[in-house]
Protein 1
Amino acid sequence: MQEKSEITIERIRPKKKRNIFYRYFKQFDLQMMVIPGLLFIFIFNYIPMYGVLMSFQDYNIFDGMRNSPWVGFKHFEMFFNDPRFMEIMRNTIVISGLKILICFPAPIILALMLNEVKNMAFKRSVQTITYLPHFLSWVIVAGFAMSILATDNGSLNIALEKAGLIDEPINFLAIPQYFWTIIVTTNLWKSIGFASIVYIAAIAGVDQQLYEAAALDGASRFKQMFLITIPSIMPIIVIFFILEVGNLLNAGFEDLLILGDDAILRSVSDVLDTYVYRVGIGSGRYSYATAIGLFKAVISVGLLTLANYLARKTGNSLW
Amino acid sequence: MKFKQQHWYTLLILLLTVGIIAGCSESSTNTDADSDQEETENGETADGEPFVLGEEPLEITMFGNYDWYTMPGWGDDEATAWIKENKQVDITAVDGGGNAEQRLTTMIAGEDLPDFIWTDRGTPVERLREGGALVPLDPYLDKYTNLRDWFGEAGINMLRSEDGHLYQFPNWYNSSPFGNAGYVVNKGIYEELGSPPLETTDDLYEYLKLVQENYPDVIPFEVGIDGQGINVLYSAFAEGESPANINNIAVPQGDQLVSIFTDENYIESMKYASQLFRERLITQDALTQDQDMLIEKVTTGNLAVYAAASPTDHARTGHYALQEEDPDGGYFMIWPIHKEGLDKNEIYPGSYNMMGWNVSVITKAAEDPEKVFAFLDWLTGPEGQASLIFGPEGKYWDGFDEEGFPRFTDAYYEDPEGLATIEEDTANFQWNGNSNFLDTAKANFEATLSEEHRNWTTHWQHTITWDTQYDATQYLNISPLPESEEGIIQQRIGEIFEEARAEALYAQSDEEVEAIMARAEESAQSVGYQTLLDFQTEKWQENLATLAGE
């Protein structure tokens, strides 16, 4: 099979090189369908990009971009010299890293586990129950978390007290050491089911004959999982991993903003996005906020490219 | 598989093209800001005959710069229907859609401002003024005189911007004290525990201990959201000061504003609060709880003492709810707690200022700003206020007495519910409430009622809270603009302060509180606290001079 496709590609190539427009018009009807999508991306994702120029100005909303003075890298320097810079970068990377470490493999494991379940009714209900939280907004999820973790009348504290594990209620949301655990756990609860859908679908697409052949050769359920299921869905895992790495500087926003409300948690909860919101948008320092946003975007593109480069070595890259 | 180099080039060229096109298309906008600035300099007084409402139809657009604000339909209630019909004024609002700041920014950028904006004093106003978007109001002051008559020249001078012009129309301005900050006590629990004295900080501590022993499930000391009650406690240690110092993050000392982190009274109050917290006498969710959690506790009576910036809001509902279960229960207020040795008449758990709450500003987008001002001035005057709060003339009031206050009819006394409905329905139209007028008018009525017939809140306002609020007018507008050097410092100081406050509250000993404050002082000084304090001192001294009438 492999050889055959190589041959067809060889045959097409000379044609393509000869005339790209010929190819384009040959698929005119198909190309027309792509245009609305391209236009949409162009208008809403590319045109607004000129706004990043704001980060090199002392932008004044009344003067607009044309009349605001240019100040070079002033806002970038201000950010790098901010006393909180290191702390914010650390929190961003640590929280994001923890999310990748725990929230990324978790749905894969869930999908693998569900794949082994033979009772369809049970499988379906687990799937439904786990993906529902995805549709709740963070305000609600954080509200749940806060009332569970509350000191006065919080269910967790009551449970621990009843079990005799603690004598006095613990103020979970005011102890910095606990914060990352709380954030990662709530994220995991909210995202695990929905993220696993794509893996479940990928597993369903694996050729059943492979399993039958393996079973005949005497492979156990575990062997089948490691030697057939995982390698088959590897391309999907790698692609999602690349996207996840590109998102390293997006450590989350609403979850941190709501759950990390207590000032005592700021040293562990303040990430780039919450900082931009509070300092930049909150007090109308648009240029400063844009500069941080641009800084974040540049790093993200770099990370994405790097991750893709590494993935290309395995043959499963995004482009 | 490789993403071809030529594709990268195409992408780059595409991006550059977009940038250039977008950059150029901006050119036609924003050229009139400067020319407008000059126009306002001419003519201190507006010429021509005053505009009389009702002579011709007047349409006004407004924007309330608050996330929670949605203007009800103008003319949907009795009072505004009357104004719409008889004064021919129609008002439409631009809705903030729950994100007022963003909506306002969009309107500024799109040069699509409404006729007037209802917003907080200070930064929002100054930013609009610096951008040349506001109309100075001075030319109209002599022509439409309600504002000057009721608010006074000193007040107007305090509201003037740096350039000497007046741009803002105040709301709920008041020359006598108002506010509800203080301590609310759960009557049922208090009486069952033998009504011990509750005057000093030691009394309070003993009482809270007693509550903890006898009612393990009740919160001994509730502090409201954002730990407001902890700020209220500061007042117990600081004679002649108020929690306004905490909001300013600066304490007056002689003619200087100095660091709060080194202030003895503040440190002492934090030690006290920390001790209460450590011994679980303060609600353990003090800094994290939300409004719902608080309301539940207050309405079910699940607390013994409740201190906040306006505890009466929820306590009033709670009081009536508790009384339904037990006629002897409910809440009452106590005279503010003081530290042993201080003068209890010099303790101020809250503050107010004569400028009231917020302001309205008229923008240059208004076709005829004078007419907008004429309307606002009418609304703050006797006829406007009486119509808005007591309904159209003829039902609850009829004409004015010789002092200029409305003459109430029998219906006013007999139908308090109908009257309350009018005031509630117009709550979101009260853009420039005139407390000087309304309070005097209402006081005549309240004086005729016996205690049990008085509204719970009104009763405590008259007996305790209004006498114990501090006049903080002198500290108005001492904050710098956020983009300025001092503004950036202030933002950092604010964060250091918030963190230190939380750390101190959770501290395990008095020594730790001291160490936290010392550390906070050090970090504050390293980001330029002194520069900010100098700036604030200067503004404060200017205010004092203005208030003294210089």
Protein 2
Amino acid sequence: MDFLTLLQIFDSSVRLATPLLFACLAGLFSERAGIFDIGLEGKMLAAAFFSAAFAAISGSVWVGLLAGIGASLALSLVHGLASITFRGNQLISGVAINFLAAGLTVLIAQSWFQQGGRTPSLSGNARFNEITLPFADAVRDIPYFGPIYADLISGHSILVYVAFLTVPLTWYLLFRTRFGLRLRAVGENPAAVDTAGISVLRLRYSAVAICGVLCGLSGAYLATGLQALFVKDMSSGRGFIALAALIFAKWRPWYALWACLLFGFLQALSLRPDAVEAVTQVKVPGQLLDALPYILTVVILAGFVGKAIPPRAGGEPYVKER
Amino acid sequence: MSDGATTGGAASVAPAIELKGISKAFGPVQANKDISIRVMPGTIHGIIGENGAGKSTLMSILYGFYKADAGDIFISGNRTEIPDSQAAIAAGIGMVFQHFKLVENFTVLENVVLGAEDGARLTPSLAKARQLLTELAEEYQLNVDPDATIEELSVGYQQRVEILKALYRKADILILDEPTGVLTPSEADHLFRILKGLRDEGKTIILITHKLREIMDVTDTVSVMRRGEMTATVKTSETNPSELAEMMVGRKVLLRVDKEPAQPKGNVLEVENLSVVDEDGVQRLKNISLNVRAGEIVGIAGVAGNGQSELLEVLGGYRSATGRILLNGEEIDLTGARSDGQTRRARGIAHVPEDRHKEGLILDFFAWENMVFGYHHAPEFQKNPRFMSNAAIKADCEAKMERFDVRPPIPSLAAKNFSGGNQQKIVLAREIERDPDLLLVGQPTRGVDIGAIEFIHQQIVALRDKGKAILLVSVELDEILSLADRIAVMFDGQIMGERLASETNEQELGLLMAGVTQGAA
Amino acid sequence: MDVIPKWADAILIPLISIILAFIISALVILAIGEDPINALQLMVQGTFGNSAGIGFMLFYATNFIFTGLAVAIAFHARLFNIGGEGQAMLGGLGVAFVCLAVPWPHWTIALPFALIGGALFGAGWALIPAWLQAKRGSHIVITTIMFNFIASALLVYLLVEVLKPAGSMDPATPRFPEGAHLPRMSDILGAVGIPFSDAAPVNVSFFIALLACYLFWLLVWRTRLGYEIRAYGQSESAARYAGISPTKIILIAMVISGALAGCMAINNVMAAERLVLNSVEGAGFIGIAVALMGRSHPVGVLLASLLFGFLVQGGAEIDFWTNIPRELIVVVQALVILFTGALDNMVRVPLAKVFLMFRKREA
């Protein structure tokens, strides 16, 4: 495999890692606060639809982005209601949210656009376009560094850079602020937070809300950055892969970055059967490549994670002890 | 003894805390009924009562954890609303719960700062807290490494962190809920010295306990609670343990178990060089050797968490170990397919586990389903090779409920709907009525009312007198001393020594529990 | 003491939850500019207006009974099997292999073998996540979801590259031999003189599903294994104490679960007389809603399956006659899961207060 092919695969890895990274960090906030969220998928899907729909209607991708985040937040609120206020089963709530998004997006898409559950294609200002970083053209001819800078680092949509910036931001928020200390505490031992005079409810709702915003960004990127329209079920398991990445990353922001890049790379490979075949010298069925990210998710969950210790209060509704 | 002078002649001083007419119900259960109490500043005020008397509920109301249905709270003479813990902290109240409210993988410093940070950025908050913590630790002799994580600390030190947390929040009133349950006698004494020191600095301390000795040792005033009501408040110097016990229970109680001297026969259980390493790689049992003979009760004394639970789990067949265990002279498998609980039961080992809610019972199962739990493979409960006989199980349950006076005697009631004492009777009936050669009993009377305690103790002694071997684990030294014939003391996964119950006393056992062997040095 | 009486816990709470789910669904229909009353009328007419509609309803219900029981048995062991979809796909594969393997002389001989084939394949597909959960601690919710995606890729590969008859453009197996064709309800009822539409695919599998309900009840509440599964589901620590092996329970419960999901294939594959792509059509997921609504009890599962059978059949009708796509059923399914599963306390707590009020008044 030549350098350019590799660069192309890396470039597409970065793009494919972006929605995973947003969703993974979204899950990180939620789960660090003790709320399991297998509804990342649904929130992504809802955000993808609403961002594409509003971008199509208004012609502005920013309006779309806001709508996407709003939709995702609304579903977060439902999850919060079920798992925080009403102390329900967080897994079941997540599953419900996934189906809710899957159904509603098609229902509304059909009602609004009558195109069989999809939105019109987006173009111009209705989607996120690629940004060329300064000097990208100037340095392009420098061997190795040039193409890496011009093709791999430059030339992505704004949301890709936002996603990568969210990693240090998350780290700082979690480990260097009062909010982060309390957030981590509420995921480990909510009773400690409660007896210290802090509202468990408010903290957990804030975490769930941040999770909603990040899932919104993830979905919006999917429909207005990575692609230029919404189609039925377009999140195709990315929310679950992000969850696997979160476990693989042991609920840490920097590890999450590497885990998502790894999964992004796997997805990029499945798009390039020619490159895979060139390296392995075997004809690989397309379906196997499609299934590869899912298979490797299972392998990673089974093998390398080993003793990843989730936040101790995760999944358990907080009930004051008698 | 404390001088008690601080309580005298203080009529002109407003009470640090005054509660008037506090009531609280949980669903149909009335936990507190019209409770009034005055706690004078600069005193140690004990609140004593049985499990479920409503002590913890009352204090949780004071700390804003629950909202009272009726009643008023006065702090230093001012009526104060305490809707949440934040308000309690603001009113100068600090609380050390029975189960510590600490974040295990946080450092001491982070735990102390949590909720009392200085600003949005963490680093300056932590720096300032470190300074203040050092000063507090010095002032009250509460030294703890601020950078140690909680999971690295012993329970005694974790408790100090809880006290520091309260002091850091400038608490004037400190409530401690059953603080000695997890401490060795010497650690408890140290705690009491700290509490007296705090009192002498002018702090007000409320000590909740069910142990009469602690009340007598450390308090200035004592209030007694029974079934959600406050029955009396007296000066400690003007009362005595048996009077308090009577007020707690409402009638005269036997503090000792009536039993004949044991007449032990041959060995039923022999344990040789038993060692256990747990999932985290920590060695929980270190080369334990021990025997229990037919017709005797061997008590294992020790502070909770020194390997007693692991010993019971190994013997009960749900924790693997190395070493040798012999039952009636025959070796028992410690690993492999025949090391399981079912096989143990078939060989004649019955087990009343330490925690009936987590292990002994399935709370949502009916009483009759619980009455065969662990013995559901026994032939008498089967209709045919495929199906269980629910009719036979229900009949069996009814009979056992009657023999053990379980109330209400309704097999089709879910286990969670019985009181603690009756739940324990269900477990005991199930295990004792199998007529085992060896009975393992953990904390037989934890969370059980005094009436049921007597009954349970009698049943255990009766089984002994039938010539069975009994291994008793309890963190209540009183219970061990009154029930056991022979006592082994565990500390840090080892057996520190063995004594005959008739030839030892609390002081000697207390030293062994703290890991001090006499004459060893 | 329990404040809510048993009957209310079993009937009233699910009923209120479902009504809430329906009310919100109606609001959704209103919001997209359609008439919910009209939609309901169409659904009722399209289902109960003729025997074909009823036949379709029962056909779908048969699927949901199998997948609902599959989710329910896992729930009893406190395992959340979201992989019913994939297990049912694999079950279809197993049934197809059996049906194509031998020129079956008569369906009565083919059916038991098809059941075994479907059960084995479904169970096998559930066994891997179960083993990973029991031995490696891999989160079964995520692994079963992943196995749904993998199953779907596997099925596409096999149908497109391996099982498709030469020269066919259609990704499907060849038709099953005559002797593997199951009698339809019209044949069965026709034999006793009751006319029933032969357009509806409902077939003898419906009775197998009813039998499965009964066997499920026997297993869970009358056998030692069922007792152990329930005990483990209620409290893992207590199960360990009682000498019940968690590994064994996880594996067995998931194998039974996968087998039940796989058995669904006698209805959607064997009775369809060939295996096509996407033959499961989300039935595995609807099983989650059915199990939750049915409180993991076979009678509840049966009733919930009939309700969902009606919803799916009615959904197809309104998809045809109005601008409401059949994905409406996914929304209803989501709301049922949400209200009966996650928002249980929203209904339960106020209801408990009502009962407490009555009890106090009586006292």
